[in-house]
Amino acid sequence: MSRDEHPVWWRDESLRPMMVACLTLSAAVGVFGVSFGVASVSAGSSVLQTCAISLLVFTGASQFSAVSVIGSGGSFGSALGGALLLAARNGVYGLAMSRRIEGSLGLRMLAAQMTIDETTAMSVAQPDPRAQRIAFWFTGVALYCLWNLGTLIGALAGNALDPTTYGLDVAFPAGFVAMLWPLLTDARARLAALLGGLVCVVTIPVTPVGVPILLSALAVLVGVRRPAEVAS
Amino acid sequence: MTWTLVLVLAAGAYAFKVTGLVILGGRTLPPVVDRCLALIPAAVITALVMKDTFSTGRDLVLDARAIGIAVAVVAAWRRVPLIAVIVLGAAATALVRLIS
Predict the structure, then answer these.
(1) ipTM of this model?
(2) Helix (H, G, I), strand (E, B) or coil at A186
């Protein structure tokens, strides 16, 4: 397939709906970045640390998890472990995206930093390889800019507020609830969520802070059985 | 939060991304591994909700946060946008603290 068949991507009318969808999603994620900024400084991180986390880690659920565990007094190891468990799925997205992302090693190393929920979802939703590639990069760049801008705004705003007065300490769990909801359409995911939550509550009084988050991951063993064997 | 954690987490998160996209490339994982990895977010995020709502340190507690989360759950169920779920949950918690 020759590329001259298509106009330059920013003039290509057929790509317009995808670009509008990418920008809408990125704007929403930017607002979510504001809430990360607020929550992170409320939990005791500095503005500079909060911005560095968004710039360097760049995967929302892991960032929230690390800051939340540290904020409740968890150890380095449990904060890191919980966050990395949530980062593992980006590796799976990378496997799926590697067929769609071509170019030099440097370009693919850059693409790796952008391989997260949203970029993968926008890309795989496109009908052909060219649109998939463009959607990945377009969403990746827009999202990276807005997520980090949002984080900076939130960190500066959060620094000026007392967390418990405005219920900002609930920003973490409320954000997690919003992230969780779309996952629960699947029967196995509901079972894993139920077991994960149960393991966490039962182990909170008897293990060091943060460790229950690691133990909750045992609930993924629900996935060992084949889908057909799980009654839904 | 320490700078060491920020940097180690950044390196670890990037390692997963680069392993999938650049190092392993187009290979596929055994189906059982794929299925288990796909369930991590549901299990771990639910645990984070429980910890942040019902605990302070190692103590299980029931306070204003539970009302805030109940409101957030209803909002998420009604398909309210993510940021509104957070604002409603926080506002409900602040309100309960104000009147109690």
Answers:
(1) 0.89
(2) coil
| Cβ distance of B38 and A62 shorter than 8 Å | no
Alpha carbons A69 and B54: distance in angstroms, whole number: 14
Beta-carbon separation of A208 and B58 below 8 A: yes
Give Rg (Cα) of chain B. Answer: 19
The domain segmentation of chain B, as residue ranges, is 1-38, 40-100
Instruction: Compute the distance between CA of residue B14 and CA of residue B47 in angstroms, rounded to an integer.
Output: 24
Tell me the Ramachandran region of residue A43: left when phi exceeds 0, alpha when psi lies from -120 to 50, beta otherwise: alpha
Is A177 close to B85, i.e. CB distance below 8 A? yes
Classify A128 in phi/psi space as left (phi over 0), alpha (psi -120 to 50) or beta.
beta
**Chain B residues touching A177 at Cβ < 8 A:** 49, 69, 72-73, 76, 85, 89
A26-49 pLDDT, tens digit each: 888 888 898 899 889 988 899 999
Task: Please name the member of A45, A86, A218 whose beta carbon is closest to the beta carbon of B41.
Answer: A86
For residues B24 and A98, is the Cβ–Cβ distance under 8 A?
yes
From B91, which residue of chain A is nearest by alpha-carbon distance?
A: A167
Identify the DSSP state of A128.
S
Distance from CA of B30 to the nearest CA of A (A): 11
- Give the residue with greater pLDDT, A153 vs A102: A153
- Answer whether A113 touches B (CB < 8 Å): yes
Domain ranges for chain A? 15-164
Q: Which of residues 65-104 of A touch B (CB under 8 A)?
A: 65-70, 72-73, 76, 79-80, 82-95, 97-99, 101
Q: How far is Cα A220 from Cα A192, in angstroms, rounded to an integer?
A: 6
Other beta carbons within 10 Å of A232: 8
Q: What counts of helices (H) and strands (E) characterise chain B?
A: 5, 2
Residues of chain A with pLDDT > 90, as a percent, come to 48
